[in-house]
Design goal:
6-stranded antiparallel beta barrel
């Protein structure tokens, strides 16, 4: 019954002239336990067909948007919450508050602590953000998992409802495996700076998850929220802004945030994620990777 509720989708009337479309993509799938990777070429039509068959077998419909999972046992952010009252012009970026991390959508945003071993076997620590897209599915930035110098992350930990600069040494979750585009891992192509992760644990049932949306049109002038974990504060921040311009793969928004917020969701008021925060763009704008048709279907495939 849960799957039927979760996978019910809204069909959009978006039939713009299709631009250059990648029919196939080279991906690398990494097993975190065995530290092994497999590179394959997949077909967009094949993965869409597989997803469609699974969804139809559950008697649901598909579209270009999937709805978030919002069960009854967890509170949802309301217009009276602190973050909703924040003015974009006066205070676009600030902490959500220690109570709000227990409220959706902030409960679906995970703090990440990653480590790479350098040449002397010293662990170099980095921090980032991921967000739930299913029971055990997380989306984040590709460079949270892959480094040009050190390769795949050696240690990766996810923290739920984190609101402290002290990260627990025992209360965290590991990934099971993940998928990235070889365009990123081979060429560091920022158009493909995303990663779709499967966890060992079902965190979605108790923390909820976001919906996801893609469009063939631009996604300019959307009023969006970005929520994530900057620097090593261990405190979740959130801010609102308008998207300014977009390309096939990227979107820019009138919001500048501290470093290490990479992997934060860029979402609208209906809790649909349209992009993933990845890097700064200018003194007045940051930039994120859009949820493309490819990424939408890869995340959907992992969920199904």
């Amino acid at each position: 019954m849960i799957c039927t509720m979760v996978l019910t989708s809204l069909s959009l009337s978006i039939y713009a002239t299709e631009t250059e479309r990648e029919e196939t993509m080279s991906i690398v799938e990494y097993n975190y336990s065995t530290k092994t990777e497999v590179t394959t070429t997949i077909s967009l039509n094949d993965i869409k067909s597989e997803n469609r068959q699974r969804i139809y077998s559950m008697d649901t419909t598909i579209g270009e948007i999937d709805l978030p999972y919002i069960p009854d046992h967890l509170d949802v952010e309301t217009n009276s919450s602190t973050n909703e009252m924040r003015s974009v012009a006066s205070d676009a970026w600030g902490p959500v508050g220690s109570t709000n991390v227990n409220v959706f959508p902030y409960s679906s945003i995970l703090a990440m602590k990653m480590g790479w071993l350098d040449e002397d076997d010293n662990m170099i620590l980095y921090y980032g953000t991921g967000f739930l897209e299913g029971y055990d599915v997380v989306a984040t930035a590709g460079h949270n998992m892959w480094d040009e110098t050190y390769g795949w992350v050696d240690d990766c930990r996810f923290y739920v409802r984190q609101y402290s600069g002290t990260y627990s040494s025992t209360d965290y979750y590991h990934p099971k495996e993940w998928t990235c585009a070889t365009n990123f891992t081979s060429d560091f192509d920022l158009n493909y700076d995303w990663c779709a992760i499967t966890l060992w644990d079902d965190l979605g049932s108790s923390n909820r998850w976001f919906g996801k949306g893609w469009s063939q049109n631009d996604i300019d002038d959307k009023y969006i929220t970005m929520s994530g974990y900057p620097l090593s504060y261990g405190i979740q921040y959130s801010g609102k802004a308008y998207t300014s311009d977009s390309t096939t793969y990227l979107v820019r928004y009138n919001l500048v945030v501290p470093q290490r917020t990479s992997g934060s969701p860029i979402y609208t008021s209906d809790h649909i994620v349209w992009a993933i925060q990845t890097h700064g763009y200018s003194s007045t704008k940051d930039e994120g990777n859009r949820i493309t048709e490819w990424l939408y279907n890869i995340l959907q495939n992992k969920f199904l």
